[in-house]
């Protein structure tokens, strides 16, 4: 990775984030450091500290960016009048596509004790993802109980399904002939009739 010495000072933070993302995907978390980001961008090794403070600050910014992109991919190209079935399919396919395109970032987003979990910007982006999850988990018809109980169970079930599937896909685990080429939609259990589109 060549040093990027031609940057605009106003975009230095973004240059660090871009470098960090590429280092993360190329070398994994163990290959990522503030010093390496500075080398890629072509600035003093102390410069990233002015923007992120420490490694946890950098990772928090990367993860925040990741959740923002995940929410966008889960709702990409949806018309305003899309019904829940279409919103659900788009969200599930977007979730898997994000994991496949950003495997190391995806793993980092669900790791423990690597970043500042209660960072306000991060929590806003995580919240945006949960809004999508709550929407697509409504009306599954998989569970019994009160409406609130069914919605809670539906969110856990659908998130577990798509998250587990994404981890297996990114790990290259589906190698048997009858598993190759399957989409998340191919394994989704039959859905009930949505009452609240």
From TrEMBL:
Gene3D superfamilies: Tetracycline Repressor, domain 2
Residues in the DNA-binding region annotation: 33-52
Keyword DNA-binding: yes
Keywords: DNA-binding, Transcription, Transcription regulation
InterPro entries in alphabetical order: Homeodomain-like_sf, HTH-type_TetR-like_transc_reg, HTH_TetR, MT1864/Rv1816-like_C, Tet_transcr_reg_TetR-rel_C_sf
Residue ranges constituting the HTH tetR-type domain according to the UniProt record: 10-70
Pfam family membership, one: TetR_C_33
Superkingdom of origin organism: Bacteria
Alphabetical list of SUPFAM superfamilies matching this protein: Homeodomain-like, Tetracyclin repressor-like, C-terminal domain
Protein name, entry field: TetR/AcrR family transcriptional regulator
Species of the source: Thalassococcus lentus
């Amino acid at each position: 990775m060549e040093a990027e010495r031609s940057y605009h000072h106003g975009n230095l933070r973004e240059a660090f984030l871009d470098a960090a993302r590429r280092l993360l995907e190329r070398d994994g978390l163990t290959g990522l450091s503030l010093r390496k980001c500075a080398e890629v961008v072509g600035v003093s090794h102390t410069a990233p500290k002015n923007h992120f403070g420490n490694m946890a600050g950098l990772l928090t910014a990367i993860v925040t960016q990741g959740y923002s992109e995940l929410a966008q991919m889960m709702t990409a190209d949806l018309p305003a009048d899309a019904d829940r079935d279409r919103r659900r399919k788009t969200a599930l396919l977007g979730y898997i596509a994000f994991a496949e395109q950003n495997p190391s970032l995806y793993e980092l987003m669900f790791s423990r004790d690597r970043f500042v979990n209660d960072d306000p910007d991060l929590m806003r982006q995580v919240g945006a993802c949960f809004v999508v999850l709550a929407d697509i988990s409504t009306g599954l018809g998989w569970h019994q109980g009160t409406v609130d109980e069914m919605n809670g169970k539906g969110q856990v079930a659908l998130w577990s399904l798509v998250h587990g599937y994404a981890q297996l896909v990114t790990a290259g685990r589906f190698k048997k002939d009858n598993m190759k080429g399957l989409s998340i939609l191919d394994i989704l259990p039959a859905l009930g009739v949505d009452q609240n589109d």
